[in-house]
Amino acid sequence: MKRKVALALVASTTSVLVAMSGSIASGQTAQAAQTAAPPDPATAAVQAADRLVESEPGVLRASPKDDFVRQGLTAGQGGLNYVSYTRTHAGLPVRGGDFVVVTNSAGGVLSTSVAQTQPLDVGTKPSISADQAAGIARALVPEVSSVSAPQLSVFAEGAGRLAYEVRVVGADKGRETKLHVFVDALSGQVIEKSDEVMAGTGNSYYNGNPVTIGTSGSNNSFSMTDPVRTGIRCGGQNGTAFTGTDDNWGNGSGTDLETACVDALFAAGKEWDMLSSWLGRDGINGTGGGFPARVGLSDVNAYWNGSFTNFGRSQDSQRQVTPIDVVAHEYGHAIFQTTPGGSTGSNEKGGLNESTGDIFGALTEWFANEPANLDPPDYSVGEEVNLVGSGPIRYMHQPSLISGNPNCFSASVPNMEVHAAAGVQNHWFYLLAEGTNPTNGQPVSPTCNSTTLTGLGPRKAGQIFMGTLLRKTATWTHSLARKASLEAAIQLFPGSCAEYNAVKAAWLAVSVPAATGEPASCSAGPDFSMTLNPTSATVQPGQQATTTVSTATTTPPAQTVTFAASGLPPGGSAAFNPPSVTSGGSSTLTITVPAGTPSATYNVIVTGDGTSVDRTAPFTLNVGTVSNVVFNDTFETALGWTTNASGTDTATSGAWERGDPAATSSGVGLQLGTTVSGVNDLVTGRLAGSSAGTYDVDGGVTSVRSPEIVLPSGTLTLTLSWYLAHLNNANSADYFRVRVVSGATNTVVLQQLGSAANRAGAWQPATINLSSYAGQTIRLLIETADAGTASLIEAGVDDVKITRS
Fold first, then answer.
1. Three-state secondary structure along 275-291?
2. Dihedral-angle region of residue 135 (phi above 0 means left; psi in -120 to 50 means alpha; beta otherwise)
C-alpha cells in the first residue's frame, strides 16, 4: 500500500497532509497547468523525495503500520538538498525511524541515510503505566523542577520496543539538566537517556583590540544585539542583552562581563561567517537564525542548553570562558541539534555531539586565522582559557594526551563519558584535515594502523563534515557517520577520488568499522538514467494513457530496475509491461483513469527502484478539460515594426513575445498606441502606425510568437481575426501570415498578401484546422512583411484561440 507523506509545520502542533496529486484551481485551464514553469530546485527536491518515500523502497524498512512525516529541507553545497523525514508506527512516534533523502539540483535522488535496520513489528499495549514511567525517569535527576507527560513511542531497536519518552528538567550537582529518558513500556527498563544540555569543559580579552562586533542602536541607546545575524545577542544570566549609552564595550580584562560578551559576539560572528563562506550554511540553525549567549555563569564550565549558550569562568576566576574555540564549540552543539536527527540520543551520539563542537571550534579558529600573539588556529580545545590550570582540555591530533581519551575506536567507546568519547571523531577530523605529518607547523598525528596520510585542509574537511551532519539520524553512531561522510565526499566532489580516499583512510586510521551499505569505492557506483516519452497525455475519464519508460546504464554494471507510479487520480491504476527491466531496457506504462474522475491535471511520478540507486521522472496527466478552449490569448494587440534589429527572438513562457529578428531600421520604428486618420482598430485604438512618411523603415519581417502550447488529442481549430493595411506605397508582396512551429519544422497555415484595394483596412476572420498537430508542443508565429521601399504597413491580430471539439 502506498502512503501519502505528511509535512510537519515549523512552530506548530499540527501537520498538513501533502497531496501526492495536484488539481487545477477553479477556472484554470489544463493548458495553463501544463505550461507552468519548471519547479525550483527546492521544490523539485521535495517532490522527488516525497515520491520516493511514497513508493516505499526496501531501504526504508517500512512496515504496513508505518507512515512518514516530512520535516523539512536543507540546501547544501554542490547543489545537494537534504530532505528529512520522521516515522510513525501504528500512530506512535518512532525513535530511530527517521531518515534523510539526498537529491541533486535537478531533483534526482542520490542516496538515503537510514539507521533503522529492519521493519517494525511491535505491540502497542503497555504493561506499566505512564505514571510509573514518569517516576522511573524522575529518579534519574537529583533536583527536579518539571516532568513532562510520558509519551508512548516505539524505539527502533530490532523489530521495535514499546517505550515511554519522558523529559525531566532540573539540576544535577548544581548544573542545569534537561534529560530525555526512554523507559521500556513492558519492563520499566531505561532504554536510553540523554541530556539536552551539552556541557562543555571548558576591548577583547582573547582577540586583541579593537575588534568589530555586531551591535544595534543609536542616539545614546545601544545593545549587544547583532543586527545582521538574527538571534545573536549577549548579556548576563537574566537573558537580556547588555545595553549602554555608547557603542564601546568592555575594558579588555578577563573578569569583565561586557568584555566576555565582546569575545562571545566576535567568535559567534566568525563562526556564522565561516558557515556561510566555507560550508554554505545559512546561519547557525541552517535557516538564517542563531541563538543568544549568556555570560557570568558561576561555574567552571560552559554549555548549550537547547536554547542559548552559557559561559562561566576559569577555575582561578581570572578569565571568562569565551575564547573562539569554546564559544564556537557551544554553538556547534546548536548546529548538531538543528541538523536532521536532532541532538538527543544514545551515549555514543553524545560523544559525536561533543566532537562536533570541537570540530566547529577548530574550523572557526582556522577561518578567523588570528596571529600567534592572540588565538592562532590549531586543533587544541580551550588552550587559551586554561580552564583548570592544566592547559587544553582536549587534543584533536592525539586525544590520548588527556588521560582516558582514546585515539582509536573500540567496543568501549560508545559507553564512555561523552567528552572522552569525542576523541575518536576528533582524531579522524584532524587526520582528514592535516594528515599524519603536516607541513604547516601542526603536530604529527599517530594512526591506529600505522599508516601515513595526507590531509585535505580544514576547509574541505569541514565541507565533508557538514555534508555528514546533514545525513544525521536520531540513532547516530561512528559507523553511520563513516558511511555518511563517504557518501558526502563522493557527492560533493564528483569525478574525484582524492576526497573519498582521504575520508576512508582517516576512518581506518582510527579503527571505526564500516557500516552496512556504505560505498565501497570512489565511484558513485552502478547508475542508470530514466526518461519518459511522451511526458504528458490528455485523456477523458474512463480512458487510458500510455508512455514508454526508457532506461540506460550510465555507470556499469547494469542493474535491475523495478517500476512504480504515484500521484495517480483517485481510483486510478498504473501497470508496467514489463514491471522491471535490466537497465538499458524499456517498459510501457499504462495509466487507467476511472469513469467519473474529476477534470484536473495530475502530477504522476514514475519511480525506478534500482539495485543501487533510485530515479524518478514526472508525467503530466490531464484528465478532461476545464473547457474546450485549449489556448486563448489575452494580449489583443496590434502588430507593427519595432526598433529591435539585434537578431534575437528568444522564446519566453507565459506571454507573447515581440521581436524583429531580420529587419534593419534607419529610423525609429512605428509605434504602438498611435492612431492613423481613417483607420479604426477594433482593439481600443491600439494601432501600429503613424502619419505616412514620418519614418523610413527598410523591408523585413516583424513577428510576435506565443508561448509554448501543449496540444491535447482530438480535433483542433485555430481561429483569429487579422488586419492588414498600407499607409503608403502599397505592394502586393506585403503580407500577414501565421506559422505553426513544431520542433525543428514550421508550416505556414495562413498567409494574406497586401494590395491597394485593402488600403483602408478591414478586420477579417480566419479558421485553420490544427488537428494534424494533436499531441505536439507548438508555438504560433505571427508575422508581417513590407516588401516595398520606404513603405509603411499596418497589421493587427485579435482573438487568437485554439479549441478542441
1. HHHHHCCCECCCCCECC
2. alpha
Local structure of residue 207 (DSSP, 8 states) = S
For residues 405 and 418, give the distance between their C-alpha atoms in angstroms, rounded to a whole number.
10
Q: Report helix, strand or coil for 621.
A: strand
**Spatial CB neighbours of 689, under 8 Å, sequence gap ≥ 6:** 640, 670, 674, 675, 676, 679, 725, 727, 792, 794
Average pLDDT across each block of 10 residues of the chain; the chain has 805 residues. List them in order.
Answer: 46 27 25 44 86 82 93 92 95 95 84 92 95 96 94 94 95 85 95 79 72 89 93 96 93 94 96 96 96 95 95 92 96 97 93 97 97 94 88 96 97 96 98 97 97 97 98 96 96 92 98 93 82 87 92 91 91 96 96 89 87 83 70 51 32 41 30 30 29 34 71 84 62 77 88 60 80 86 65 65 81
Length of the chain: 805
Alpha carbon distance 524, 613 (integer Å) = 10
- Mean pLDDT for all residues in the chain: 82
Q: How far is Cα 580 from Cα 587, in angstroms, rounded to an integer?
A: 8
Cα separation of 490 and 492, whole Å? 6
Measuring CA to CA, which residue among 575, 579, 567, 549 is closest to residue 623?
A: 567
Sort residue 538 into left (φ over 0), alpha (ψ -120 to 50) or beta.
beta
Strands 92-95 and 151-155: parallel
Burial 305-341 (b: 16+ CB within 10 A, else e): bbebbbbbbbeeeebbbbbbbbbbbbbbbbbbbbbbb
d(CA 619, CA 607): 11
Can you say how many angstroms the Cα of residue 22 is from the centroid of all Cα atoms in its chain? Answer: 21
- Cross-strand pairs, 583: 585
Buried b (16+ CB within 10 A) or exposed e, 698-726: bbbbbbbbbbbbbbbebebbbebbbbbbb
Q: What angle do CA 392, 393, 398 make, to 5 degrees?
A: 80
58: phi then psi, degrees, rounded to nearest 5: -60, -25
Strand-pair partners of 546: 590
Q: Which pLDDT score is estimated for 760?
A: 42
Which whole-number Å values give the CA distances from 78 to 357, 361, 433, 493, in the listed order?
24, 24, 20, 8
d(CA 71, CA 64): 21
Q: Which residue has the cell 577530523?
A: 429
pLDDT of residue 24: 19
Burial of 651 (0-12, 13-18, 19+ CB in 10 A): exposed
- pLDDT tens digits, 471-529: 999 999 999 999 999 999 999 998 889 999 999 999 999 999 999 989 988 876 788 88
**Residue 113: CA atoms inside 13 Å, Cβ hemisphere, count?**
34
The dihedral over CA atoms of 458, 461, 467, 468, expressed in degrees to the nearest 10, equals: -120
Looking up cell 572522552, which residue turns up? Answer: 420
Residue 762: count of CB within 10 angstroms of its CB:
10
CA-closest candidate to residue 89, choices 113, 114, 116? 116
Dist. CA 762–CA 776, nearest whole Å: 33
Other Cβ atoms within 10 Å of 129 Cβ, number: 12
In tens, the pLDDT along 51-105 reads 888 877 788 999 999 999 999 999 999 999 999 999 999 999 999 999 999 998 8
Angle, to 10 degrees, between the axis of helix 257-279 and the axis of helix 458-469?
Answer: 90
Nine cell digits for residue 70? 516530512
At 573 the three-state DSSP class reads strand
Q: What is the pTM of this model?
A: 0.68
Could you tell me if 284 and 275 are in contact, meaning their C-beta atoms sit under 8 angstroms apart? Answer: yes
